[in-house]
Amino acid sequence: MVGLDIGKSSHNKQKKLRSNVWENFKKLKDEDGKDVAICNRCEKKFNGSSKKGTTHLRNHFISCQKKRNEGGASGSGDKPVGNSATDQQLNHLDRAKMLIKQCYWDLPNPIRDTDIINIYNEEKEKLRIYFEELCCRFSLMIRNMADGKCTCFMVSFIDDDWKLKEKIIGFKCIEGDQNMKVLKNVLLDLGIDNKISSMVTDGDSDIYVLSSDKRENRFSCQGSLLSNCKLCVRDFYDIDITCPGFFGEMEKVLHDHMSKISNYITKTSSKIGTFQIAKDRARSLGKEVTAEDIPTEEKLEHMFSMELFKIALDLKEAFFELENMDPDFKSINLTKEQWDVITTFYQFCYENDFGHIFWHLLYCKTANMFFPVLCRLYKKSLVLLTLNSFICGKIYLQFVRDAEKCWDEYNLILAMAAVLDPRFKMDIVKQWYKKIYGDKCETQLEIFTNYLTGVYNEYAKGTNNFQSSISYRMLDILGNSSHDLDSGQSLNFELHLYLKDVNFPLIEDFDILEWWRVYSRYFPTLAKMARDFLSIKITVPSEYMFFEFPFSHKDFDSDIVKEAFACTKSWLTN
Predict the structure, then answer these.
(1) 248 burial level (CB within 10 Å; 0-12, 13-18, 19+)
(2) What single string gives the DSSP state of each residue in 57-69?
(3) Which end of the chain is more exposed for a tag (fewer CB within 10 A), N or C?
(4) At a CB cut-off of 8 Å and minimum separation 6, what does 38 contact?
């Protein structure tokens, strides 16, 4: 077994356990000279080669014995035997599985390390066969554990029933610079080394390097279209929590400025009169002044946050007119640039609920749900950059850097996932790009459209062992079949049909994977894309509980047993 060195003593014990299976099977040669194993009870034939192993024989024996105990194998109603060494061993392993599943390892009669290793090998073989039969690729996730000593390798994928799944594939304690070697062995063991479509890490982006070039001294992910789009950035939630409560900071700044303005205007009746004239003059010039009176200091103290921002912005044009009438007020008033910043800040908070993201609602969601989250994080970082005239920018620099890197890494990929949501298609990208890029929106949309078309064409041409898209025949105005599309037209026709078709209604409770399961026959190329892009995993806080296994290093004698226990527990419970 590549990647697990369990030593000679463990190997010998494992070999002895395997030999017990042959008490219930005959090993013979067939007419082609190949090894076959025949069940003593039902006489069913199996591959008996030593390279095949005995997991499939053990699994059959359990099933065969269960049928015999229930009187279903032969119909004789024989009573269960239950006295052979193998029967006792199987009962023991069933008990061990139950204890592993319930995380009971520290008992008066603890689970033997050999039992954990053997069950691990058995379940791992089942997982390998399961992966082999899937017609999809995998998004690789690499998570460093809280103790900093172990790394958890996981894959996220959309199975053949169009269900989003997650599986742990390794739980390693890595020393030195062995990261890529360990990862390579983990993927090779499960036969998915050439089926990784993307990678997300929460660690150093330079540790794990996936390459599609076999000539390079790196791990090859040839056949993985997205392998060069490695997503090595911190999770969105981690980035968001590095940003302090800037809304409260801005509220305090504006409150202080409004207090100064209020005190200046209301200190004499003449100032109040001049301000009234300024409001009327601003309105006569077609400027919007919707508030009537400047709030007193007492009213300012009891105002809600958004109410404070709104009344300040409702009066800003009157303040500018007051500057023209009273030069002394200019030193009290905010500059036009500062008022523009406050306007941008208010609009962002008003439209985005103060910039809050409800992370718990994103648990186990497909990647299309994270494009608007990414847009909000990036927009927040752009807003923060404008606040330097009010708030010291240093405290926000880490957030701004992380959000910008996140945008550069994820923007096109998650925008692609969002377009694969039939409720929005290109509309959601256009709206968010307009909010983020403003006048440069069209240029950025062209960049994304080229990316979308390029990726689609790669899938449609059968790149990376994909089958080509279905061919289409055109109808004339009378409904008669006319001609096939030429290769150039056919290449983009499926994408054109999808984007031009009416969007699905904007309902919140929408099963996007069920939609693709139904419509995959009409959009086969886009369906392949959907399985790759929608399975990209961006973790959220509640998922971190999944990585906190209830044990520590001292609970096991070796890292090998620790990994076997952690992986087996996950496989048995999911």
Answers:
(1) exposed
(2) HHHHHHHHHHHHH
(3) C
(4) 25, 26, 28, 44, 45, 46
What's the whole-number mean pLDDT along residues 292-321?
87
Query: How many residues are recorded in the chain?
Result: 574
Residues 463-479 have a mean pLDDT of 49
Residue 431 has pLDDT above 90, yes or no: yes
Does 428 have pLDDT greater than 60?
A: yes
The pLDDT score that the predictor gives to residue 6 is 27
Q: Measured at the alpha carbon of residue 503, what is the angle toward residues 498 and 507, in degrees to the nearest 5?
A: 135
User: Which of 359-366's residues contact partners 24+ apart within 8 Å by CB, and which partners?
Assistant: 359/237, 359/240, 359/540, 359/541, 359/542, 360/540, 360/541, 360/542, 362/538, 362/540, 363/540, 363/542, 363/543, 364/164, 366/164, 366/417, 366/512, 366/513, 366/534, 366/535
The alpha carbons of the chain give a radius of gyration, in whole angstroms, of 32
C-alpha torsion 166→170→172→178, nearest 10: -110
CA 252/CA 485 separation, integer angstroms: 64
Please give the average per-residue pLDDT across 480-494, as a whole number: 59
Residues 494 and 527 sit within 8 Å (Cβ to Cβ):
no
* Rounded Cα gap, residues 338 and 396, in angstroms: 19
Task: Report DSSP letters for 444-468, one per residue.
Answer: HHHHHHHHHHHHHHHHHTTGGGPPP
Residue 447: the pLDDT is 94
Q: Report the relative pairing of strands 138-144 and 196-201 from DSSP bridges.
A: parallel
Q: Is there a contact between 566 and 549 (Cβ–Cβ < 8 Å)?
A: yes
Angle at 478 between CA 476 and CA 480, to 5 degrees: 60
Rounded alpha-carbon distances, angstroms, from residue 43 to 52, 61, 86: 19, 11, 18
Is the predicted pLDDT of residue 314 greater than 70, yes or no?
Answer: yes
Q: What distance in Å separates the CA atoms of residue 469 and residue 460, rounded to the nearest whole number?
A: 5
Residue 369 half-sphere exposure toward CB, CA atoms < 13 A:
21
What ranges in 234-304 are assigned the alpha helix state H? 236-241, 246-266, 269-284, 297-301
Q: Is the pLDDT of residue 220 over 80?
A: no
Q: What is the pLDDT of residues 26-52, one digit of tens each?
A: 888 887 778 888 888 777 888 887 767
As a whole number, mean pLDDT of residues 289-294 equals 84
**How far, in Å, CA of 86 to CA of 90, rounded?**
6
Which has the closest alpha carbon to 504: 395, 411, 421, 397? 421
**Nearest to residue 568, comparing CAs of 113, 131, 121?**
121
> Could you give the CA distance from residue 8 to residue 14 in angstroms, rounded to a whole number?
10
CB 76 within 8 A of CB 96: no
Residues 6 or more apart whose CB falls under 8 angstroms from that of 53 comprise: 18, 125
